[in-house]
Structure formats: C-alpha cells, structure tokens
Amino acid sequence: ENYQDLLILYLTTQDTQLHLSSKQLQQIYKLTPKESEIAKKIAVGLSTKEIAKQSNVKIDTVRSQLKSIFQKTKTRSQNSLVYTLLTSPAAWSINKVSAKADWTMRIPEKDSHFREGSLTLQDGRQLAYAEYGDIDGYPVYLFHSSFGCRYQRYPYHDITAKYNVRLIVPDRPGFGLSDKKNDYTYLNWSDDFVELNEHLKINNCSIMSLISSSPFALACAYNQPQYLNKIMLFGGFSPIDSFSEILELAPFYRLMLGLAYYTPSLLYQFIKLHARGLQNEPFKLMNTLTSRFSAYDQALMRKHPKLIVALATAVHEQGKSTIYGLYNEGFRLVRPWGFPLEDITKKIDLYYGEFDTHASIGMQNKFKKLLPNHSIRILENSGTYALFQYWEDALQFAKS
C-alpha cells in the first residue's frame, strides 16, 4: 500500500504524568522483554546497581543490556535515553494525582517510630523537634531545607528503624514551632544544637543536611566537632561571594537570593507574599516547584507518593510560623557566614545528584577549595533530592 506522509502531534500538559508501555517499547525499538523493563526502570530514575539488585543479576549483565538499549534507541547516555523514551509514542499520559482527592495533609501519626518534643533554651526560646525510626537507635540529625520543618523526612519510618537509626529533625528558629530570634547566625545554631544534644542526652551523632541547610551543618562542624561522627551535605550550598554565583542557580533561588543580595526589603515582601502559598496551597506550591525538578526527582516523587505528601506537609507546617526564618536564611546565605571553612578539621562528605537543578557546579568547586578535609561524590541518576533516593545507603554510612 502507499502511505502519505503523516505528522502526529502529541499534546500533554503539566497536569499529566507519563507511563511507558513495555509492549510498545518492544515494538518501536525492537527491545527484548528484559531490555524494555530495564529501559522503564532507567526512565523512573533507578541506577544500574538498583536494577541489578531488584532483578537479582550481576551489574555487568545490566550494563550489557543497557548498551544494547543504547544501540537500538540510537542514544549514547542514560539522560538522552530517558528523554527519547518519555517523548516517544511508547509514553502515554495519565492524570496527576489530585491534591484534593489523595494529597491530604498527613501529620505523622504518633507511634513507636515517631514522636515530637520541644525544649526551652537558656534564652527562653522554644525549640521544637521530631524523632523518627528507632527511638533508641544511633542518633542522626537531618537539617531541613529552607522550605521545610521537622516534618521534612523520608516518610517510611520502618526503613529508618530497620537500620537502628534515631532520626532527629529540629525546627530551626522561625520555622514550625520554634521561636524566632532576631539577628540569628549560623554559630547561634551550633549553640542551640549543643542544648538540644544535652536535652536528648546525646554525646555522639551524625548530621545530614539538605540543600540550603549546609551552613548550619558546617557551623556545627566548626564550633562543636566533639559531638560529631559524620557530616553529610546533600546538594549543599557553598558561600556566595558575588552576584554571578547567584546567576548559576535554579530560577527560584536566583530570584530569592538576588533580592537578598541587593534589596533585602524586597526579599521580605516576596517571602510574605510567598508565605500565603506555604500555608493555604502547599500542594499547589509543591506542584510548581516539582515541575522545575529534573526528570529523576519527578520520577522519585511518582515512585514514592508519600514523599511529596511529607514534603508538602512540611511546607504547610513551616507556614504556621512567622516568615522570619525563611527571610533570615535567604539573607544570611549571601553574606559572610561568620566562621572560616578553612578551619574545619572534621571530614565533610559532600553529595550531589548527577542532575541536581538547585546547587551549581561552581558550589562544588568552591567547597573543594575551602574545605581542607572533604570528599565529593556524584550520585548517578538522581537530582536535587538524591538523599531520599539513596536513603538506606546514607543511613548506613551515617552510623558507621
């Protein structure tokens, strides 16, 4: 038969997600059934190591099959493979989960793997915190990002408990239920950290920080190293000394920190306006933010819907407090941190997702110059929230 040339136009919106059909992958690209399954797993952000573990095969076998997939799809890297698959006819759209239908606020239920507490600091302020996992296990702190609070965590508490980890997530001043403090500095936080350790009867612990909370972890490493075993920064921001460094960041941080750098008064008004979304429409805000994440972060959220619920719940709880905490952190991040990173003697372990859309390469390079004792690891097939993708590995290392 004679066929005329056809143009097929696929339309989608930000309200849809994509699903890959194994049958169509096999038909379009002549993949074997095993190759199509590997291709689908790569598309949702799994690493070759994770695929090998799930499939109970050697990693070399997976790599060999992946090489065949590259040849058949005419791609040369996992990144280009994901793009090719998700823009092919093998990808069909499904509606995103409705926030009203299923994304209800879920404050963690108090059980053997979760509890909340607070203490009165020496200056009279209240500092709130939450604990997850094995309450009698090895203490590991998670310092939440600037868009979070004590509810920002990996939501599968039984997994945290399985590794005998006592995960502690404190609200920083001006976040959640912790009182604000005017002119609060990073070194002030290291003093609060000591009081919290004494309150919880902790004399040895590890810290994991997420994105913009890196200065708080480093302040503790500088000022209170005697408490610390491991200091792990995930997607950590480095000191910002010029506006050109801000231009390398993701658009939202570029706007926020640009205002902080030049016009702090406008930053305050910007956050004041933004705070309404934190409190009133956290899922809409999370949808906006995640739409700018890498494909790997979006795949992680689809794979673990409880995670985005936990993140949105943390954003909502953060909005209950004043806007001072978020404003102060934006303001401080673009000014001298108040302590020399060159004098930190503890080893700092830095982790960045291969497709991190928040922290820049320049930040990694700056840490290389400033930190005398460090390691940097790029986590394959992951983005900004690589910590949650590699959660079990992170817990094992934190307590080792």
List keywords for this structure.
single chain, 400 residues, 10 strands, 18 helices, 45% helix, alpha/beta, eight-stranded mixed beta sheet, two-stranded antiparallel ribbon
How are the elements arranged and paired?
Elements: E1 16-20, H1 22-29, H2 33-43, H3 48-55, H4 59-73, H5 78-86, E2 91-95, E3 114-120, E4 126-133, E5 138-143, H6 157-162, E6 165-170, H7 186-200, E7 205-210, H8 214-223, E8 228-234, H9 243-246, H10 251-262, H11 264-280, H12 282-290, H13 295-303, H14 305-318, H15 324-333, E9 348-353, H16 361-370, E10 374-379, H17 386-389, H18 391-398
Parallel strand pairs: 5-6, 5-7, 7-8, 8-9, 9-10
Antiparallel strand pairs: 1-2, 3-4, 4-6
Structure described in brief:
This protein is α/β, with parallel strands linked by helices and 400 residues long. The chain has 18 helices and 10 strands.
